[in-house]
Design goal:
433 residues; Nucleotidyltransferase, domain 5; 8-stranded mixed β-sheet; 23% strand; binds zinc ion; RNA-guided_DNA_endo/Transpos; Transposase; DNA-binding; Cas12f1-like_TNB
């Protein structure tokens, strides 16, 4: 049996190392964004009317003939120029290119399914390290930067029963790779760790599954089954301002005004995309902290019908958020799934009773059992449970599965177990706002 865990470790970075780390992050993003640009616009980078021959490249197995989704093709074309443009080591340049190729691949898959998407953009301060570019120790890490190696001590809580100390201090868990993240002025190492118990054969079907359910909505962009809320206030404010400006510009009716409307839209989209990246990162962190293997959303295909109050901007934000979570999750080995959305907001997550009167705006009160909670939180739990029930009916009734809740895990037959990873507490529910 193989266990994978991600330990989120705060780093004690020597102050003279910070400029090198910051520059490494910037140059890594530069690699990823340059590679994304190149792979996404692929084979039509030189317009035919320019008189130049479009660049010809061999089409390998998984390329779609337009976008480049082959790591080898991308590395052949980009490795040398990016080594020249940056001070990164060969390994980090390669990782930056690969990060972009993975994201472009996900984008191409979405295009094939007929979904809207656009070129992946990397704005989060994050660098991928493997065992060649980093040396992981039990109390510190040595990281390759634009200016040689930098050593950072871990800041670990004393309690060895709780993550991240629990995994970092356990010699049975080996470091596999890490993501260096810079957030609110602090540096973190998200270390992917693995423990293998040799006497058991790994069997992916009976792997323990914990699910993070996520509800999307117009008042809260996202609510996780662990009770974490991401408010849509800022987004809704932006949206109303945008509509106002658009309205006043459109009254002018000129072509100039029309172009202005479009450029405002683009600029604001960009700003809000940053916020969606942050929400996606925090959703990932929530899943990691609660030891989840799956993040489950409602099916987005007909989301406009399921959330009648949603405007086109909300639908845009939901899709973007889903895409970001989907490609970031891949790097951590988490799966992202969708379930049918019918009645997730009207169904009681405690007794299963579905009734139109159960939900009243943001409050949920079950007509049958009296369960009361925030309506979006109730919905996020239903989304998690729906995925579990479908999996159980599908093929692996015996697999231990549960939905991650605020203070533990609830399995499909309603048995509660407190969080094993130190998130102990009573089964009391108190969603965080
Ligand atoms: Zn009920």
């Amino acid at each position: 049996m193989e266990y994978r865990r991600t330990a989120v470790i705060k780093l004690d970075t020597p102050s003279d190392a910070k400029p090198a780390l910051r520059e490494t992050v910037e140059q890594f993003k530069h690699c990823a964004n340059r590679a994304s640009e190149w792979c996404w616009h692929g084979r039509r980078q030189i317009p035919p009317e320019s008189g130049c021959q479009p660049e010809t490249r061999s089409v390998s197995g998984d390329d779609d003939g337009y976008h480049v989704t082959s790591k080898a093709t991308a590395e052949r074309a980009l490795y040398d120029p990016l080594r020249d443009e940056t001070d990164l080591t060969a390994n980090l340049v390669q990782k930056g290119i690969r990060r972009a190729v993975e994201a472009v691949k996900s984008g191409v898959e979405r295009l094939k399914r007929g979904e809207n998407t656009s070129k992946p953009h990397f704005s989060a301060d994050s660098v991928v390290y493997d065992k060649r570019s980093a040396t992981f120790h039990r109390d510190h890490v040595s990281l390759s930067t634009v200016d040689g190696r930098v050593e950072c001590e871990y800041i670990l809580p004393d309690d060895t029963e709780k993550p991240p100390t629990k995994y970092v201090s356990d010699d049975d868990f080996e470091f596999r790779m890490g993501h260096l993240q810079h957030r609110d002025g602090d540096w973190y190492l998200h270390a992917s760790m693995r423990k293998v118990e040799a006497d058991e054969t790994p069997d992916p079907d009976t792997k323990h599954r914990t699910v993070l359910g996520v509800d999307l909505g117009v008042n809260n962009i996202a609510v996780a089954s662990t009770g974490r809320f991401w408010s849509a206030d800022e987004f809704n404010h932006w949206r109303r301002e945008y509509e106002k400006r658009r309205g006043s510009l459109q009254q002018c009716g000129s072509r100039h005004a029309h172009e202005n409307v479009q450029s405002i839209g683009r600029k604001e989209d960009g700003r809000f995309e940053q916020d969606l990246h942050t929400i996606a990162n925090e959703l990932l962190e929530e899943a990691i902290e609660y030891g989840c293997s799956h993040i489950v959303f409602e099916d987005l295909t007909h989301i406009r019908e399921n959330i009648p109050d949603a405007t086109w901007q909300h639908v845009w934000a939901f899709r973007r958020l889903y895409e970001y979570v989907e490609y970031k999750a891949k790097e951590y080995g988490l799966s992202v799934e969708q379930v049918p959305p019918e009645n997730t907001s009207k169904r009681c997550s405690t007794c299963g009773c579905t009734h139109d009167d159960n939900r009243n705006g943001e409050s949920f009160e079950c007509q049958k059992c009296g369960y009361e909670n925030h309506a979006d939180y109730n919905a996020s739990k239903n989304i998690g449970f729906r995925y579990l029930r479908r999996r159980q009916n599908a093929d692996d009734g015996g697999a231990p599965v549960g939905v991650a809740l605020n203070r533990g895990t609830l399995n499909v037959s309603g048995e509660y177990s407190p969080a094993s990873d130190g998130l102990n507490g009573s089964p009391r529910e108190s969603p965080r706002f």
